[in-house]
Predict the structure.
Amino acid sequence: MLSKRKISEENIYKFLLYFDKLYAKFTDLEKREFMNSFIESIEIYEKEQPDGRFLKKIRFRFPVFFGEKETPEICWNNQNTVETAVLLNN
């Protein structure tokens, strides 16, 4: 009986194959709760960007692999920013 409860690669693969059908049956509240279980925050642009993007950043509740590295967030903000610190004395 314990072996039936174990999560196997095969069980996960089967679940992922049918996930879209399962997700389609979720209520809006269930979808929101599901997303909140792994997404901490989402930042969006006020207006759609010229290239069609509207997402600025997604922060996850756990590290994900993106761009060949492990990161807690995916950021699409491609604006070049320069930070400058100046010490002024009289």
Summary: The chain has four helices and three strands. The radius of gyration is 20 Å.
